[in-house]
Amino acid sequence: MTPKNGDQSSKWRGRLIRYAPLLLWTLIIFGFSTGQASMEETSIIIRPILKFLFPTAPEDTIAFYHGYIRKCAHFTEYAILAFFAFRAAAGSSIGLLRRSRFVTAIILVALVASIDEFHQSFVPSRTSSGWDVLLDISGSVFTVLLCWLRQGKRS
User: Fold this and answer.
1) What is the dihedral of CA 28, 102, 104, 141, to 10 degrees?
2) Which of 5, 41, 37, 48 is nearest to 132 (CA)?
3) What's the gap between Cα 66 and its chain centre?
4) Which of 34, 45, 50, 54 is most exposed by smallest CB count within 10 Å?
5) pLDDT by residue for the chain (155 residues), tens digit each?
6) Residue 52 CB: number of other CB atoms within 10 A?
7) How far apart are CA 46 and CA 92, in angstroms?
8) Beta-carbon neighbour count of residue 62 at 10 Å?
9) What is the pTM of this model?
10) Residues 149, 114: contact at Cβ < 8 Å?
11) d(CA 74, CA 58)
12) 47, 66 in Cβ contact below 8 A?
């Protein structure tokens, strides 16, 4: 029996819905890996907000808060990536991906984070750090745990 055109179209639509957010978010992360998202560039936006919120804070404190906000952004952007990876794997037609959706999400995040940090080592205005990779992976573990807990409640 040959599949109908509507069946094929439906399969492609499902794949697009599952994988497009994952691919798009990965590209956004790699875009953040350029000099445009360096600490110097983000300080144009973040520092005035911090100065407004903490007008009497010394410059060192503002720099610390700025760095902390950037690390929270690392955690968050990779937590979102893990969600998209989990979602794509959970809906995959490949049984192995579906069964290993939790691990797949963490492995994909570790791979993207490692590539991202490696790329940053070649960008003069950026720094590369293994600690950032661990922070990124912790964001993915956090998201995967939330997905696991959510699935447990639905069962």
Assistant:
1) 50
2) 37
3) 20
4) 45
5) 445 666 777 788 888 888 999 999 999 999 888 877 778 878 888 999 999 999 999 999 999 999 999 899 999 999 999 999 999 999 887 888 888 899 999 999 999 999 999 988 888 888 888 899 999 999 999 999 999 999 877 76
6) 8
7) 39
8) 17
9) 0.86
10) no
11) 25
12) yes
Token duo for residue 100: 């290993």
Q: List b or e across 30-43, with b for residues whose CB sees 16 or more CB atoms inside 10 angstroms.
A: eebbeeebbeeebe
Residue located via tokens 């503002």: 62
Opening angle at CA 27, ends 70 and 38, nearest 5: 30
Amino acid in position 29:
I
Q: What's the rounded Cα separation, in Å, for the pair 65 and 54?
A: 10
Phi and psi (nearest 5°) for 91? -100, 5
- Dmax (CA) of the chain: 74
**86: its two tokens:** 């989990």
**Token pair for 52:** 């407004």
Distance CA 100, CA 86 (A): 9
The tokens for 67 are 């760095």
* Residue located via tokens 């080592």: 121
Instruction: Give the orientation angle of helix 101-120 with respect to helix 130-154, to 10 degrees.
Output: 160
